Amino acid sequence: MFGVVHALAAVSAVAAAPQVRGAVGPADTLRVAAAVSIAREANPMLRAARLQADAAAERVPQAGALPDPELSFGLMNRMAGSLKSTMDPMTMNQVQLTQEFPWPGKLGFAKQRAQGLARADRLDAEDTELMLVARVKSVYYDLSYMDRALSLMRASRDLLRDFAQVSQTMYAVGSGLQQDVLQAQVGVARMTAEITAMAQERIAMAGRLNALLGREVTVPILALELSPPADSLPGVDSLVALALARRPRLQAARERASAAEAGYRGARRELFPDVMVGMSYGQRPQFDDMASLTVGVRLPLWAGRRQLPMRREMQAMQAMAEAEALDLTNETFALLVEMRADAEKSLNLARLYATSILPQARGSVDAALAAYRVGRVDYLSLVENQMTVNRYDTESVRLIAAYHKAVADIAALVGTEIGGAP
User: Fold this and answer.
1) Residue 419: inside a domain, yes or no?
2) What is residue 176's predicted lDDT score, i.e. its pLDDT?
3) 282: how many CB neighbours lie within 10 A of its CB?
4) What digits encode the pLDDT tens for the residues 58-95?
5) CATH number of the CATH domain containing 284
6) Do the domain assignments include residue 51?
7) Rounded Cα–Cα distance for residues 285 and 215 (Å)
8) How many domains does the chain have?
9) 174 is in which domain, residue-wise?
10) Who's near 420: CB < 8 A, 6+ residues apart?
């Protein structure tokens, strides 16, 4: 009988012990700010986006440059029967330089289009960085949640093991039911399976975070930080104004629309002929040297198959770029409303859990423990109450992580950090 009393005391101590909180865990090894900094320096996708922007910038001077001149040399008007003879007045050694000059405005609009596309690629690289930061934070907070959920699940398993020990002891002395023993063993096994599954998910998630940071996927990542949520978020109108002013992808869409307009205006000038100017110098061995100047134009004889389709193509591309910019703006606004609603929902529920649900659930455990001591509640009811507290604790941590993930997504959409973003 002493063994039963000792086992009962163990269960009471475990049930009455403070529960694992969301902010409790091993020392942080990688803070979110450090993870973001590493990703900005080492992520290969971001590096590729920046290099693409660099390549686009190099196209700008190409678009505004004149075509290369053509330099040619020739032996002119040699007699077929005697190539060395220079007695004919038309025989000469000639050097010729030809330069093509596009119609005024063609090069200017081509350069303007290239500049707009280059600015768009640079802005896209900035937006890629913002999206990368949001992705890093999302995976980081998933890991933070898993760390704390695993701690809570292990505490729950320890409680179930203590209950199983008590059930076995009471069954051995004839004061317990075999059903309680079996239920306790099943509960321990089920919790062990859940812990195993989440532990493997954490390994996969840690590998994903390492990949985002440009590191080997096997680099160890220990417990991560999870800061408390902020008090409030900016209103939808403020977020929309921020996105319009600062989101790089919206600015890039506007730059592409402007570049498409320049391309259309340049295409309208394709019907105007380019001018070719040539200068030549002829050295005649037996006579005075000669010089020539030629001016020519390209004739748009096939305008119906070349210049006019080009104009219609650029007009369609301009309309397409404007439509894409409008669609991206609408999608950004819709996502802002959605993400802010998700953040507010997670924040309000987390507060509800902290101020109402969890205190009541813990009070229920205290009441069940008191009733158990006088024999009015069985073991299973006591443990079920404690497991309910653990589930609420886990959900509270998940809500805090979901809030931080939504805030990170909002920051990426508006192009800057906002209140509540760590």
Assistant:
1) no
2) 59
3) 20
4) 999 999 999 999 999 988 877 766 767 767 777 888 99
5) 1.20.1600.10
6) yes
7) 73
8) 1
9) 2-414
10) 229, 230, 231, 232, 233, 343, 403, 407
